[in-house]
Specification:
single chain, alpha/beta, about 350 residues, 5-stranded mixed β-sheet, 13 strands, Aminopeptidase, 8-stranded mixed β-sheet, about 20% strand
Length: about 350
């Protein structure tokens, strides 16, 4: 049953609450790619990219000198098809602190509330009033409940992964990437896809690795993957690029959660790209309408699950359909259990959203 949205009095507006202290207001596709993939190399501090959807390209991990044995039931065993970069089995927990927290409601001129619940963070030249009016329109596609594919779930940064379980410290030598599909962002995609299948909505979950061994060029490679699938399945209306964020700095990484039905779920952020006139995305507002519809459904179903939609000058291959979005599920500080649960919740809300768009 949908829950009534509650206005929270607590407002998190400090840098540690999840936005950049120095913001680049207009990013072309090329500029965004450079910042996204080379920020660490040029010496930009992580604080500049808190909760802004860029993530971080962590350095390769080195051999740990400390063996850490988790308690019984918490040991993560790599799957047989873990690939060339398996998940660590030992840890040096001297890197810093895992901060457990929850993002609340935001205020400020760049934020506005959607009609029922949920918020948008507007980092563009469009007026909030214009975007609010757009949010009242339905997306530019309809859905049929059939086994014919309607939705594509994929991952540009397929190797993104998470903390193995709840703990108070993290291993700075681990770069939170693994080719093991049982332990990386593919597990979240599996959880979303399962709920769509349960609702009778045809879905393809593609787990092609696009960011390993080379991180640079991930979006070019994922675009080729998506285009091939769209060519083979023209019935697909929705393409969701499922990621995880990377929020932290100065010896702290964030673990943003909300408790839903007695369990911790990682908080979620939708990114809907805006065209500055150079990106070849003439239909970006149609994607934004879909983002707003999904955001309101998720927040209505599961209060506190969402962070504001980020509407910004980003490309992220969102020109390929009018239902193309990027969704950040948790951060590198969240646990695998938390993000898989969020995937389940996203899938349920997504199913309800799409059913409302039936032919």
């Amino acid at each position: 049953m949908a829950r009534k949205c509650r206005v929270l009095s607590a407002v998190l507006l400090m840098a540690a609450g999840g936005f950049m202290t120095h913001y680049l207001p207009v990013l072309t596709q090329a500029a965004g790619a450079v910042i996204h993939e080379e920020a660490t190399a040029v010496g930009v501090t992580p604080e500049l990219f808190l909760s802004s959807g860029f993530g971080e390209d962590f350095t390769e991990e080195t051999e740990s000198t400390e063996v850490f044995f988790p308690s019984e039931g918490e040991i993560i065993t790599p799957s047989p098809d873990a690939g060339p970069k398996p998940y660590p089995t030992k840890w040096d927990l001297t890197g810093g602190t895992v901060e457990k927290m929850s993002y609340g409601r935001y205020s400020g001129t760049q934020y506005f509330d959607l009609r029922t619940c949920g918020q948008v963070r507007n980092e563009t030249s469009h007026a909030n009033e214009e975007l609010y009016d757009e949010s009242l329109h339905k997306p530019d596609f309809t859905i049929a409940r059939t086994t014919v594919p309607q939705v594509l779930i994929m991952h540009t940064h397929t190797t993104e992964c998470f903390e193995p379980y709840e703990r108070d410290a993290y291993d700075a030598n681990f770069n939170y990437r693994t080719t093991d599909p049982a332990l990386n962002i593919c597990r979240v995609g599996d959880a979303i896809a399962e709920q769509l299948e349960n609702a009778g909505i045809g879905v393809i979950h593609d787990t092609t690795i696009h960011d390993y061994p080379s991180y640079t060029g991930s979006y070019e490679r994922s675009r080729r993957t998506v285009q091939a699938i769209l060519d083979a399945h023209p019935s697909i209306k929705v393409v969701l690029d499922i990621h995880r964020d990377a929020i932290g700095g100065n010896g702290v990484i964030k673990q943003p959660t909300v408790r839903i039905d007695g369990k911790k779920a990682a908080q979620v952020m939708i990114i809907s790209g805006c065209d500055d006139g150079t990106m070849g995305m003439p239909d970006y507002m149609k994607n934004f309408r879909f983002a707003c519809m999904l955001q309101q459904q998720m927040e209505s179903d599961y209060e506190g699950l969402t962070r504001p939609i980020l509407f910004d000058y980003r490309h992220y291959n969102q020109d390929m359909t009018t239902g193309s979005l990027l969704i950040e599920v948790g951060t590198h500080g969240n646990t695998l259990e938390q993000v898989v649960y969020s995937g389940e919740l996203i899938g349920k809300s997504l199913s309800r959203t799409l059913i409302r768009l039936e032919d």
